[in-house]
Amino acid sequence: AQSVTQLDSHVSVSEGTPVLLRCNYSSSYSPSLFWYVQHPNKGLQLLLKYTSAATLVKGINGFEAEFKKSETSFHLTKPSAHMSDAAEYFCVVSPSTSGTYKYIFGTGTRLKVLA
Amino acid sequence: DTAVSQTPKYLVTQMGNDKSIKCEQNLGHDTMYWYKQDSKKFLKIMFSYNNKELIINETVPNRFSPKSPDKAHLNLHINSLELGDSAVYFCASSQDLAGGSYEQYFGPGTRLTVT
Q1: How many CB atoms lie within 10 A of CB B71?
Q2: Which chain A residue is nearest to residue B91, measuring alpha carbons?
Q3: Is B106 close to A34, i.e. CB distance below 8 A?
Q4: What per-residue confidence (pLDDT) applies to B99?
């Protein structure tokens, strides 16, 4: 069975410092992986996705993530945090086999950016 | 143009009432979803439709009934509302069923408050 674990429920960084949001997954097959961002009182927006092409994926707003099969990880990073990055972030696995139709959501990481 | 829209955005009602939430997507997608997000931001899949056919029906009380009149619309009707139904409900769509590399597009959410 597929699963996804976001290792930190809360992360605080200072503006201008790097961001690291950690995500580990479990899958019997080569999964598709996504990061979504949810700003307060908004819907979820896709940041980036991995679909078995390049292992380093670039997304919107300067975010990127690296797929590491050996570590079963898909951590989200950004070199320099901005105040507008404060939000909830979700790591999501889409099972790669037919017959399983559920996206598996992590429990979310709340990013706080300090001035 | 809004890709996935929901109405209403806010819904305040009393216990025992019946209410509906409407969702429409203009992306030409085949699959639509309803999610429930609780106060801790956990996202739980409720239902999924593919080409108007019910695909996912999670352990949800019978008081919740989805209806998909066509591929572009997925409505959620809730009977006999209870305090525990208070949450944010998100509609989403994807090009096809999970199991591929298709990202989901989310609506802005409907905040339901039952008093």
Answers
A1: 17
A2: A43
A3: no
A4: 64
